Amino acid sequence: MPDTQVAAAPRQLAPRASATTAPARLPATARKPAAQRWRRFASPLVLVVLWQAASMAGLIPPRTLAAPTTVLASTWELIETGELPYHLLVSLGRVLTGFTLGVTTGAALALVAGLSRLGEEVVDAPMQMLRTMPFLALVPLFILWFGIGETPKIALVALGATFPVYLTLFAGIRGTDPKLAEAARVFGLDRRGLIRHVILPGALPSALVGLRYALGSAWLSLVIAEQINATAGIGFLINDAREFLRTDVIVVGLVVYALLGLGADALVRLVERRALAWRPGLLKA
Amino acid sequence: MDMHAPAFATHDPLRVRNLTRRFGENTVLDALNLDLAPGSFTALLGRSGSGKTTLLRTLAGLDEAPHEARLDLPRPAAVVFQEPRLLPWKKVWQNVVLGLPSAGARRRAAQALTEVGLDHRQDVWPATLSGGEAQRAALARALVREPRLLLLDEPFAALDALTRIRMHALVLDLWRHHGPTTLIVTHDVDEAVLLADRVLVLDGGRIAADIAVDLPRPRAHADAGFAALRRRLLTELGVDQQEAA
Ligand SMILES: Nc1ncnc2c1ncn2[C@@H]1O[C@H](COP(=O)(O)OP(=O)(O)OP(=O)(O)O)[C@@H](O)[C@H]1O
Ligand SMILES: [Mg+2]
């Protein structure tokens, strides 16, 4: 599933941008696709209505799946008791810490490997070997190393974010157009100036795709990590609910996971639109 | 009085002695000697693969010269490549002053862009420029450095004929105002005769022909002497006159 995100990312860039480059005209441009957007919501809405009807008719027993109205009521309850906000904060904390750690590590390694030959020889070979391993397979080892506290959870999230950032930033740095670098050199940029004005901005589009990929990966890691003996967090909420056959609470947890993923993705897209405003595909306002 | 000489031409001449460049077995420049007068405008012609770009790169300092060669080069040097080579993530004006101290950069960029007729495009991304506009921005980027040596490697080859005519006029104008020693590499014999005081032909790793262009500016294809010069250069380039006609 993270793979499809990477493949889809560059294509999604172009059409979304048109609205951003001309904020003044936003209401006018937003009005036209409004009908389309409603149509997009119509079919999920119908599904929810069918689900509700089936639940009320007794076709879906609450043990299998709670009715949407029950889910809504439970959501409200979980918010009111402060349970949901608490677990949400715990999960967010894990993702933020792990993601920051992972992105920092991935970016640092990519800079070392991308900007120096020696760095490449030392860093790239092991990274390329490690990345072929499905990192979630490391869970048992992580439990042995880090126990069952917060550390293995954060480490897993960090690991999930490291590789996408490393691979895309490294590729971006190495993909620098030598003609641009040469021109910059004629016009007096030293090595530092070259890195700052040519290499890093040129690597940014690739790195941002990696960042989105890393988010998806970090999220997935969080879900897996929170199955490891957690005592708090959305994953704990879900596992705990399973013990009591509370399918309504499980659905709440799943929806929260989905919304968090969507929100994070939207955030990166926003960064993308701002940072890559110069890209030809984004310019046709 | 020489109407077309640049306003000032007080700096050092360009002198190259014994420049040899090899790529494996392939000797591209063979003990080449070259002198360019300060503030002169020279065109460099030659078959494809004759080493024009190689020579220009050495003059620009992009390639290291072998130590047996002696080079006296006016500095600073600026290059306009065949492609504009603007950084797509910097606004046009930022591209123009790339690598210059930031104090007063904005003003200098504006001034240079005005000179090439791009003052209204200062704040756009390079991707929105037409080919001719992008190449004019590249010219502004070269000129803002007040180069004493201006090197142009087929700068107009990718432009349409009309834009190219406009660019010729612009380059001559800028040359007259700023007076850099100018060397333009071109495949186009007409372009060479239109622009330059002197046309060199590179062949066999050396300057094989050195022809002065003594036509008054502005020049036109219909001028007396233009056709004769053109014919002579084509012969030097080994083009059969029947083919060329
Ligand atoms: N970096 C390089 N490595 C190997 N061979 C090279 C290199 N650069 C140039 N050459 C060779 O040197 C010769 C001269 O190349 P150069 O680019 O100077 O020719 P040119 O006169 O500019 O040609 P054109 O008119 O097609 O641009 C060619 O045979 C080319 O293959
Ligand atoms: Mg060439």
From TrEMBL, chain A:
<dbReference type="GO" id="GO:0042918">
    <property type="term" value="P:alkanesulfonate transmembrane transport"/>
</dbReference>
<feature type="transmembrane region" description="Helical">
    <location>
        <begin position="95"/>
        <end position="118"/>
    </location>
</feature>
<keyword id="KW-1133">Transmembrane helix</keyword>
<feature type="compositionally biased region" description="Low complexity">
    <location>
        <begin position="14"/>
        <end position="31"/>
    </location>
</feature>
<feature type="region of interest" description="Disordered">
    <location>
        <begin position="1"/>
        <end position="31"/>
    </location>
</feature>
<feature type="transmembrane region" description="Helical">
    <location>
        <begin position="41"/>
        <end position="60"/>
    </location>
</feature>
<keyword id="KW-1003">Cell membrane</keyword>
<dbReference type="Pfam" id="PF00528">
    <property type="entry name" value="BPD_transp_1"/>
</dbReference>
<keyword id="KW-0472">Membrane</keyword>
<feature type="transmembrane region" description="Helical">
    <location>
        <begin position="130"/>
        <end position="148"/>
    </location>
</feature>
<comment type="function">
    <text>Probably part of an ABC transporter complex. Probably responsible for the translocation of the substrate across the membrane.</text>
</comment>
<keyword id="KW-0812">Transmembrane</keyword>
<dbReference type="InterPro" id="IPR000515">
    <property type="entry name" value="MetI-like"/>
</dbReference>
<feature type="transmembrane region" description="Helical">
    <location>
        <begin position="249"/>
        <end position="271"/>
    </location>
</feature>
<dbReference type="GO" id="GO:0005886">
    <property type="term" value="C:plasma membrane"/>
</dbReference>
<feature type="transmembrane region" description="Helical">
    <location>
        <begin position="154"/>
        <end position="173"/>
    </location>
</feature>
<feature type="transmembrane region" description="Helical">
    <location>
        <begin position="194"/>
        <end position="215"/>
    </location>
</feature>
<dbReference type="InterPro" id="IPR035906">
    <property type="entry name" value="MetI-like_sf"/>
</dbReference>
<protein>
    <submittedName>
        <fullName>ABC transporter permease</fullName>
    </submittedName>
</protein>
<comment type="similarity">
    <text>Belongs to the binding-protein-dependent transport system permease family.</text>
</comment>
<keyword id="KW-0813">Transport</keyword>
<feature type="domain" description="ABC transmembrane type-1">
    <location>
        <begin position="84"/>
        <end position="268"/>
    </location>
</feature>
